[in-house]
């Protein structure tokens, strides 16, 4: 690069266009400025500090889509209250295996965040994580019986130590008064509570992680929209992009590419031509919250309270009444209520749903449409709900809810994975056989388990390096390579240490 080229690149950055003239491939390009890219970038920068890493974000700020605090529930997903991780079998039995697995993954998140706080990479814990009990509340004899079986299956598991169960209105009233006020007499109900739950502002966490990376030499380029990925003869990937404001085109070559762009990931992975993405499609589901900042209501509810999903509803639409802490301000959210738009991102394109269609995924997507008519019915019902109807749904949780106390807030877009004729719920990493490119599709538990997901990605994409990285990974996540639940003493040690570092309940 000549002195003139360098000066041009500097002037472009100063005008806010955030792009350079680059003559050599960079080591890593992370597409999408959300929690996934922030987490992977943090790990890779620690493991290979000499690598050149570039983050590309299509919006003017990072963490403005799924990672934004108002676009998700902020639940530190540890399966403490989410019933969809332990569905009843045909005989009514419940298996805690998946719930334990999700909890194990969240403990890795807690450990990583604790380490980064100790090193000054992250700010005070309260800027992104706050203690908030996790509860489950159900009504009706069938669901009460199920919840009791779930409690019995979990109470002896080390990672669920402290879980409480009650059918006593007086006890539940102490836990969450808004649930009990004017509750119908004779109605069967039950609740579980885990004091060690958390509320997480993933937007703040993402901004802190990327801010630290940027201050240490990682390039974070905003207003840059990645458009196409092409494999070069030398094995590198050419990332074609355009500036989101001036439409200025450009390219950037990279040895490794991660696509962490929410629903946009499917389009970029399809453009790459890798065989592994064939057959995949996504279905976008939006959401809305009812929100209140009424101090009288907020003061009476400090918990995230989940219940059973409506028939046909996706797991991400399980109704819950949540305490949220964003920028130091506390409010309550209830929902989510499903909405529909063909966009894959909140600020996506109207043709996203159609332009993803390929011969390889067409029949799978059609099968999903035919075999998920209950989901279609659910979406139609949700779309027909007025503000009054949404508050009426809230009254199943909070009988005293008043229309005027609650306002509607648009949440983020989720892109549910479709593959093999099935609609999948969760997150899936798609990677090329040579490990040179990977991307993430799906939704919950997503952000809460980002470190675990990215550790799995490192093993898949860098198998020849993972052994030499293990000492550094253990420095970041002391229990790396271990399972906590089968080791009660280790589980207790880790939970106690991270609770202290994060200033949350044990």
TrEMBL record:
It catalyses: (S)-malate + a quinone = a quinol + oxaloacetate. GO terms for biological process: tricarboxylic acid cycle. GO terms for molecular function: (S)-2-hydroxyglutarate dehydrogenase activity; L-malate dehydrogenase (quinone) activity. Its cofactor is FAD. It holds the Pfam family Mqo. This is Probable malate:quinone oxidoreductase. It is an enzyme of class 1 (oxidoreductase). It comes from the Bacteria. The gene is mqo. Its EC number is 1.1.5.4. The keyword Nucleus does not apply. The keyword Coiled coil does not apply. Keywords: FAD, Flavoprotein, Oxidoreductase, Tricarboxylic acid cycle.
